[in-house]
Design brief:
Elements (H helix, E strand, L loop, with lengths): L1 E6 L11 H14 L3 E5 L8 H11 L6 E4 L9 H8 L5 E5 L3 E5 L14 H16 L3 E5 L20 H10 L4 E4 L6 E5 L2 E5 L15 E7 L3 E8 L4 E8 L3
Parallel strand pairs: 1-2, 2-3, 5-6, 6-7, 7-9
Antiparallel strand pairs: 1-10, 4-5, 8-9, 10-11, 11-12
Helix pairs in contact: 2-3
Length: about 250
């Protein structure tokens, strides 16, 4: 079994960040001892260099390997440069035990809320996914902006501008999991053989209605996968259970 924790939208800053909730989440996640943590963007609230410096100290509290991609807030105020200097590459690929591949995409644009992948990055993703199909690898694609609109989020303004093209690539390659954040609302869609999962906000105080801070946990078995929603300091809910593609 491989356990992946999916966190998103920390919004580390002076005003939008709840340190107490974050530290509680860190303790819970470390106790799970996951194989990896995937962070789908908005690590900072304004992309300021000082926010990134503070964020690096907080992220170091996680004991599992952590892989992050930027969100729209991270790319503000030259934040995309700070991300590369202090966090790492903005798009990347990792392969675990030659059994599954995780692809991280940068959907952010400088000082804009909307998301965009673009043709060069899409072609690169398609090449990586072709390899997954040929080698029968479990595939995960992570990006900040959602490819499908999320319920209970009000007027849709920030959907991925090339969502149709990206969704076609994801579904025709039968990507197993697509992970996103951005809206601070957890959700699951299933399209063909692809499970599209949105994470809520781990530690921001910018929350919708009664939706609290949360993170997702994915247990991936040889023939199935279980997806859980963990409310920080609260209950754990089975989000979905699916058989893996043969």
């Amino acid at each position: 079994m491989t356990t992946i924790v999916h966190i998103s939208d920390l919004h580390i800053s002076k005003d939008a960040f709840d340190e107490e909730v974050f530290l509680k989440a860190v303790s819970e996640i470390n106790n799970l001892k996951p194989d990896m943590i995937i962070l789908t963007g908005d690590i900072t609230n304004s992309g300021y260099y000082r926010e990134y410096q503070r964020a690096i100290e907080y992220l170091a509290l996680f004991e599992a390997p952590l892989f992050a991609i930027p969100g729209n807030h991270d790319s503000r105020n030259l934040g995309y440069q700070s991300f590369e200097e202090l966090v790492g590459e903005r798009s990347w690929k990792l392969t675990k035990d030659d059994e599954f591949t995780v692809i991280g995409l940068d959907s952010s644009a400088h000082d804009e809320n909307r998301g965009h992948i673009g043709i060069p990055q899409q072609l690169w993703m398609e090449h990586q996914l072709d390899e997954c199909v040929v080698n029968n690898r479990f595939s995960i694609v992570a990006l900040h902006h959602h490819v499908i609109s999320i319920p209970d989020t009000g007027r849709e303004r920030n959907v991925l501008s090339d969502a149709g093209d990206i969704l076609k690539t994801l579904t025709t390659h039968e990507v197993d999991l697509v992970l996103s954040g951005h809206k601070h609302v957890p959700n699951i869609w299933k399209i063909n053989e692809t499970i599209v999962v949105n994470a809520g906000s781990l530690s921001s105080n910018k929350l919708r209605g009664k939706i609290g801070n949360s993170y997702n946990v994915y247990n991936i078995y040889e023939d199935s996968m279980e997806l859980f929603l963990h409310n920080v300091g609260g209950e754990k809910i089975l989000f979905g259970k699916y058989r893996r593609k043969s």
